[in-house]
Amino acid sequence: MPAETAAADVVATDVAALWRLAAAASDADVDRALGRAGNSRGRPGLADFAVLLSEAAAARVEDLAQVAHRITLARFGATVRLFSPLYLSNECVSTCTYCGFSAGNDIARRTLTVAEVEAEAAELFRRGFRHILLVSGEHARIVNRDYLVDCVRAVAPRFAQVSIEVQVWDTDTYRRLLAVGCDGVTVYQEAYDPVTYAAVHLKGKKRNYAWRLAAPDRAAEAGMRRLAIGALLGLHPDWRSEAITLAAHAQALSRRWWRCEVSVALPRLRPAAGGYQAVEPVGDAAFVQLLCALRIVLPDLGISLSTREPAALRDALVPLGVTIMSAGSHTEPGGYASESAAEPQFAISDTRSPLEVAAALRAAGYDPVWKDWQRA
Amino acid sequence: MTPGSSEADNLVIADRVFGSRLFLGTGKFPSNQALRDAIEASGTQVVTVALRRIDPTAGEDILDAIPDQVLLLTNTSGAVDAGEAVRLARLARAAGLPQWIKLEVTPDPRYLLPDPLETLRAAEELCRDGFTVLPYCPADPMLCKHLEEAGCATVMPLGSWIGSNQGLRTRGALEIIVEQATVPVVVDAGLGAPSHAAEAMELGADAVLVNTAIGTAGDPAGMAAAFRLAVQAGRAGWRSGLAAAGPVASASSPLTGFLS
Is B102 part of the annotated catalytic residue set? Predict the structure, then answer.
């Protein structure tokens, strides 16, 4: 692992010791962790985060939610930023057991031409979006650097802000993408536990755990402004240890790359081609506890919630700390400007249109923010 | 103006006269309507909006909430260095927005602390370029003097970290800034309660800028009205000549009056 990186900090984190804190936490420990939130006698840290993931804290989830709500409102106001994914391609050479795009799956494959990307982007703009996330499977020949640069160049003039969620690249490639108007990189480590990681990533470049873990560092080194990370909940049997490592990674990125905005996503496994079943599904109560603990310990963290989650739950989670939402998403290449027969990456659950999501936010007293950036 | 003066109490910035000394930020409001109501209740004549939030192509834009008679102070929120701040200001001008710029250079997205070096560099360039520059800055008296010399129309030192609602944690430095300033001093950031705004005005600030405390209040318009009164009360207190505070009691009826 490259020294002086957030990835190295993550590897050096004693997750087992933090996990033991979670396992042994008492009600009094939970009180102390909550007491440190927002007061001046020391900020809450990873040890507090572990405590807030404990069984003792699970019994206090309403207390956690109240604190998380207060912190979110103070830091972000009653606002949620909206964005849309735009899938470029579902071609993939990696075999990942949980993913609909996995190389072995016999599915309808498609890669949008740059002109098609532009048409899809124009439709998303028409629907109100000004923040866009370009997503793709991992195919270094078909979805190569030049293609990605061309796609970013095609959509950047229209959008206030462009991010990518594609295979991980070297620093120079991130620089090229930055130069044409992409300033955000999303990389989910999927599973932070190296054994689980190896068990679900069977073939392809994605098998390289360390190269992937250090990708946000390379993106930041290249000058990217937004780093988004995440763990795919349900891959690893113990969600608490994954959550602890995710929080350690977010904190390390914020410290190492202090100019960057860091956000996390908490994707839970959804049905997809290949029929993979979660080893240990993360239930709603644990999900809420995790969301609140993240907000309490990392008050400035962007927290993103996708259309994987059902509408009612998404609406209920907004006050607890969600600051970024997608809406009306398609997870197959195409689908916005024209019908697409290509296979989606996973089945979405919240099928409301962007305007319906915005209306639900307004009804709950939140301002749906479509534009919150200006390229200088 | 000095305490006790009977002159008309207007705020003058770069030859423009303002009756209100409360500036309003526009972030964190739950809706455009809530923002509109708060602007009206605050009586403000200066509202700052981030260029990053402005979208002329949108059906409903944040600018729709701002009445015509209020001065729109575009801010450079998101700029991490002088170059970006200058480009954002020029983009605002090119879009037909007023040449009044609230300069914000905050490379750290967590505490949003103003970068003193980059803020000064940007201020120098924007002032040379004809902008009316109101810089958000650390509460550093020397930096404020440099910003004045660069040609800034005001200085806007922070009371405490932006959005923190902690009040005047920088009070000692603000007193020096107020004492030394030759341009209006607008205390910006950290004012979490009307009493904080009153305190800033009592120590001689020319105006205050408030956002989070109003935008995230249960009743933003109600809180805006409360800040309006607090700013007026604090200002009136300062103008009337505040009595000195001391460590011991001071009898309001002298005990030695019989000697005279």
Answer: yes
